[in-house]
Amino acid sequence: MEAGYREELLAALRLQLEWGVDEALEDAPVDRFAARAPVPEAPPPTLAAPALAAPAARPAARAVLPLVPPPAAAAAALAAAAQDLAALKSAIAEADSPLRDTATNLVFSDGVAESGLMMVGEAPGADEDRLGRPFVGVSGQLLDRMLASIGLDRTKNFYLTNILPWRPPGNRTPTDAEITLFLPFLMRHIELVRPRHLVLLGGVSAKALLRSKDGITRLRGRWHQVETPSGPLPALATLHPAYLLRTPSAKREAWSDLLLLRRTLDGDAAPR
Ligand code: URA
After folding, report:
1. Which among 30, 131, 163, 168 is least surrounded, fewest beta carbons within 10 Å?
2. More confident residue, 47 or 1
3. What is the DSSP string of 212-251?
4. What's the whole-model pTM score?
């Protein structure tokens, strides 16, 4: 790259930073100059021999299987081959996804895998992306305080992960395609951790794992079953801590969900 052009690009980038741009909102860079380039004109007609009559239509070709498997199938194969959590983390890092290009760190998990209790959130935010650990930002701090109120502590008795291991640019909601791509990794994650109970934090997590179209307000507050390769697993759907930060009045429902979780863990309320 020419030195002058490089300086120009750096100056443009500096200006954007001064104007307060702090993150990329699209999954892939867009070359706006190329987008504005003039469309090349069609070549002039030649005086060559008149075009031959169109060949007779051929019989339809037989469907050919794609040489490259679709991304979700490739993800499922990578996930199935992982024999432990370290291998699963490497497999996720290997899986091709535009989210990987825009994120800083892979956010795999935190907490105690052997605790028997696994919580599944939505996707990393800016703090999680920076530190490579789930739920370390403001909503994570609220989650820790809420769980501490029923005697749970991520350094002792629960484990945490997310539906997506990479931060979606600008914290947008995960797309269906992203969820489909990463779901095989999450299912394998659950299979390797072998929890006795799952807690689904928020609508994205609850809908994806319960394969439901219902919103979180309908799903929360009761035990469901998540179908896993090792059998059905009790899963409690509850409100996401980020929602509770925006809607403090909903903490009442979240508290009732926490009490249900506590009673179940104590063996007082068998998951229904
Ligand atoms: N929100 C989530 O769902 N997960 C995180 O890790 C952080 C915020």
Report:
1. 30
2. 1
3. --S-HHHHTTSEEEEEETTEEEEEEEE--HHHHHH-GGGH
4. 0.77
